[in-house]
């Protein structure tokens, strides 16, 4: 049987690449020196796209593939896929929900603890001899028992909140409506009000045009000079200029970020700050989760080409 031709937008680990190459005729977009030329050559034959959450597939790419039937995203977020272009042509879209939820929540909690307790600086304090020369490390702020806000109580937000309960924190959340499964948490409809009531604000919203810059200067300033913002969702949920201004002027205490506008090239203003923890978009980056994500990417493609129901459809 002929292998269906697919376009692979970004690299995967070897353990995913091998089975992908075995099942499909894979054209590697990310390896092409001239991407336009590759699209012009192979686009007309492409039936599937395998991409990653942050890379997605834009309209130009989709239009260069007139026979495209399915886009399989390695990631829960599909905001970088032009869904409107897919709807217009009946192109199916899949993602990898659930399998990454716990790891993403774990990293969010780790980021809160790491920044609150100054663990990166503390490591340097030991390594550069400051401990021996200067003595005790400067005191940091407590986490347990303080107030946490979760903006977006979906799967990931819920797991973040579940973990925060273990730190005896008071937990509130914002979402489009109160959730029946969150009766032990306080629902606060307005994100600005949520920020006012929070010491730590976790951003766990699925990104879309509707959530763009939902964390703007009002939310940031409501969180305040003692507050910490933790983003494990997408950069577009936060007004990054407003965030940088507030971090530079002390209107916001600190921020722990796993995602950035234009990543992996981030705004150099972040690098000059010492009240941030900067992470390279790796919240789902464990061997276990990435293996499960890769399998789901292939399972969705295989199901589509076998005419079976898609395991995790978006469209
Ligand atoms: C991945 C992601 O880091 O799930 C998402 O939406 O962005 C991440 O899990 C990414 O897709 C891996 O490249």
UniProtKB/TrEMBL annotation:
SUPFAM superfamilies: Formate/glycerate dehydrogenase catalytic domain-like, NAD(P)-binding Rossmann-fold domains. InterPro entries: D-isomer_2-hydroxyacid_DH (IPR050223), D-isomer_2_OHA_DH_cat_dom (IPR006139), D-isomer_DH_NAD-bd (IPR006140), NAD(P)-bd_dom_sf (IPR036291). GO terms for cellular component: cytosol. Pfam families: 2-Hacid_dh (PF00389), 2-Hacid_dh_C (PF02826). Residues 16-314 form the D-isomer specific 2-hydroxyacid dehydrogenase catalytic domain. Keywords: NAD, NADP, Oxidoreductase. It comes from the Bacteria. The keyword Oxidoreductase applies. CDD domains: HPPR (cd12156). Residues 109-283 form the D-isomer specific 2-hydroxyacid dehydrogenase NAD-binding domain. GO terms for molecular function: glyoxylate reductase (NADPH) activity; hydroxypyruvate reductase [NAD(P)H] activity; NAD binding. The keyword NADP applies. Belongs to the D-isomer specific 2-hydroxyacid dehydrogenase family. This is Lactate dehydrogenase.
């Amino acid at each position: 049987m002929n292998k269906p031709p697919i376009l692979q937008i970004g690299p995967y680990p070897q353990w995913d690449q091998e089975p992908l190459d075995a099942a499909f005729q894979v054209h590697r977009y990310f390896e092409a020196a001239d991407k336009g030329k590759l699209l012009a050559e192979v686009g007309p034959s492409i039936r599937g796209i395998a991409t990653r959450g942050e890379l997605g597939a834009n309209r130009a790419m989709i239009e260069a593939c007139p026979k495209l039937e399915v886009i399989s995203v390695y990631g829960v977020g599909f905001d970088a896929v032009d869904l409107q272009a897919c709807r217009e042509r009946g192109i199916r879209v899949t993602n990898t929900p659930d399998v990454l939820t716990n790891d993403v929540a774990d990293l969010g909690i780790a980021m809160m603890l790491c920044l609150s307790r100054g663990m990166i600086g503390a490591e340097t304090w030991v390594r550069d001899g400051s401990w021996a020369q200067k003595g005790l490390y400067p005191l940091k702020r407590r986490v347990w028992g303080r107030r946490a806000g979760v903006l977006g109580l979906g799967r990931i937000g819920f797991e973040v909140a579940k973990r925060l309960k273990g730190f005896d924190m008071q937990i509130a959340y914002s979402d489009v409506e109160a959730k029946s499964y969150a009766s032990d948490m306080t629902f606060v409809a307005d994100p600005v009000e949520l920020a006012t009531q929070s010491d730590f604000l976790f951003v766990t919203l699925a990104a879309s045009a509707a959530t763009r810059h939902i964390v703007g200067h009002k939310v940031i300033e409501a969180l305040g000079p003692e507050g910490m913002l933790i983003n494990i969702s997408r950069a577009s949920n936060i007004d990054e200029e407003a965030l940088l201004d507030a971090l530079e002027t002390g209107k916001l205490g600190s921020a722990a970020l796993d995602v950035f506008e234009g990543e992996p090239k981030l705004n150099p203003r972040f690098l000059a700050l010492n009240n941030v923890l900067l992470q390279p978009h790796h919240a789902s980056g464990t061997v276990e989760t990435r293996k499960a994500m890769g399998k789901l990417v292939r399972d969705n493609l295989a199901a589509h080409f076998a005419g079976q129901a898609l395991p995790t459809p978006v469209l």
